[in-house]
Design a protein that fits this description.
Mean pLDDT: 86
Number of strands: 13
Oligomer: single chain
Low-confidence stretches: none
Strand content: 15-25%
CATH class of the largest domain: Alpha Beta
Structural class: alpha+beta
Number of helices: 10
């Protein structure tokens, strides 16, 4: 009987175990892609791996774990309780691995990949569009998947790298990176002012039509004196409450009332004479702008995008 060196056997077994662990890490990454895409077809498009291969690899992962991770139906995939826990842990591991690779040398200087970003509709169209064009010119290796929506996307379950949001951050589960605080002012059309008169002091706003953002709470506007920084809380009236900054601006140009918003949102109307500033010695409450992410571990493309916006939008 031939003698087999036990040290050689142990080394062989150790090497095979390492190979199994590497394959398992690959399967974990594929599992994360399937869950993020909520299906094998979407994951196949994202990874370039056939549906059948993805299904087989996830099934092998479930067999190795001894647990069902996904409920498969003809219509959709759903995570089991064990699958949800496993996904949460695997996603962090995959994010860290992705970050480690992207932060190596050339990739950090010249990021590549698809940047998936959610933007507020009106702010993006009025102000962010030229900034995105400038950023795209500086980083030709980045592709853009931009979603303009008034809703607050779910950065945990939806495949976005970053969401730009205006207003105070309310979701403590996300990472909020401040980009700017945009001062607001009052504006009205020459036609409206000719019809209703021009307010001479903040208290006069109570007798005017004011276009108010829907869901903003009490019908008051805080105003700060630019001369001595005193504050007044002014009751406002008006027939219109809206959930669109763009619509508020448009109605103001149609002589329907006074708006309060950042100058960046009305710069074109000011230049064309459709609106002009009223109460020039008073400033409204600044609007904070944040870059929201699901994690602090960001790939290079997202890091560069956030840093670029912070620089262009100004000090926080």
């Amino acid at each position: 009987m031939d003698f087999i060196d036990p040290n050689l056997t142990q080394s062989w077994n150790h090497r095979m175990e390492r190979l199994k662990n590497i394959e398992r890490l690959k399967d974990m990454a594929l599992f994360v892609e399937v869950v993020k895409a909520m299906g094998f077809r979407g994951a196949a498009l994202a990874t370039g791996i056939p549906n059948s291969t993805l299904s087989r690899r996830v099934s092998a992962l479930e067999k190795a774990m001894g647990l069902r991770l996904l409920h498969r139906t003809t219509r959709k995939l759903e995570l089991t309780e064990a699958g949800q826990q496993y996904f949460d842990r695997c996603k962090r591991i995959v994010d860290e691995a992705t970050l480690a690779h992207e932060q190596l040398g050339e990739m950090l200087e010249h990021p590549t990949g698809v940047l998936r970003v959610s933007l507020p509709v009106d702010f993006a169209q009025a102000y962010l569009a030229p900034l995105i064009a400038e950023f795209a010119g500086s980083y030709p290796g980045i592709q853009f998947d931009v979603d303009l929506t008034p809703r607050r996307v779910d950065l945990v379950t939806e495949p976005f790298d970053v969401a730009i949001r205006m207003g105070e951050s309310e979701d403590s589960a996300l990472v909020a990176r401040p980009l700017a605080r945009l001062p607001t002012y009052c504006y009205a059309s020459p036609g409206y002012l000719a019809k209703a008169g021009e307010p001479g002091e903040p208290a006069d706003l109570s007798a005017h039509e004011c276009l108010r953002f829907r869901g903003s709470g009490a019908a008051t506007w805080p105003l700060f004196s630019l001369s001595d920084r005193t504050e007044r809380s002014v009751e406002i009236g008006g027939r219109f409450q809206l959930n669109s900054v763009g619509m508020m601006r448009r109605l103001a140009t149609l002589d329907l009332g006074i708006v309060q918003m950042p100058e960046a949102m009305v710069s074109e109307d000011l230049a064309q004479g459709r609106l002009r500033r009223v109460l020039p010695l008073w400033q409204g409450a600044p609007v904070p702008v944040y870059a929201m992410t699901e994690t602090r571990l960001l790939p290079a493309k997202t890091q560069h995008f956030i840093a670029f916006l912070r620089e262009r939008l100004g000090p926080t």
